[in-house]
Amino acid sequence: MTSNPIIWSPATSRVQASAMYRFMRQAGFDNYESLYDWSVQEAPKFWEALAGFCDIVFDKSARRTLANSDDIIAARWFDGSQLNFAANLLRYDEDDAAIIFVGEDGTRRELSHAELRAEVAAVAAGLKAAGVEMGDRVAAFLPNCPEAVVAMLAATSIGAIWSSCSPDFGVNGVVD
């Protein structure tokens, strides 16, 4: 029996520049295997540390980090907590790229964090003007493109529930 050969490994400098490496070191581990073992053996502590590392802002704190951990179907992470997905993603206002898009035709577009925030705010204002409120459903028929991300973040920023379907799915896929 032969083992699978490693086809590619990143350079050490690239590994050490990654967020995964920074998290691993902050959590007190020297290698991925020990981080992985900890994430399985001490799952609630792992998820608390990861939420802290990612600076997740909760509107309401969790009663329990991981409930029903022995049953993946019934497991509940950050049980009882509330957060606004869009607010967590849109809190940055820098000029670095938030979205880098490359279309099938090779078209490339970038949106900075500041541009993304401005576009999301404009679409959210339009949704509110149309009467969309927290708990409403917003559905879209559009391809995977920056506008889809903007519309999703705008809907979720006001507490609406987002759903979309890409034209790439074809008529039967859309109808289903």
Structure description:
This protein is an alpha+beta fold and 176 residues long. Helix content is 43%, strand content 16%. It contains eight helices and six strands, in the order H-H-H-H-E-E-H-E-E-H-E-H-E-H. The strands form three sheets. It has a two-stranded antiparallel ribbon. Strands 3-4 form a two-stranded antiparallel ribbon. A two-stranded parallel sheet has the order 5-6. Helix 3 (32-41) packs across helix 4 (43-53) and helix 6 (113-129) packs across helix 7 (146-157). The longest helix is centred in the last third of the chain and has 17 residues, at 113-129. 11% of the residues are buried. The mean pLDDT is 93.
Helix content: 40-55%
Q: Strand arrangement, largest sheet?
A: 1-2
Q: Approximately what portion of the residues adopt beta-strand conformation?
A: 15-25%
**Uncertain residue ranges:** none
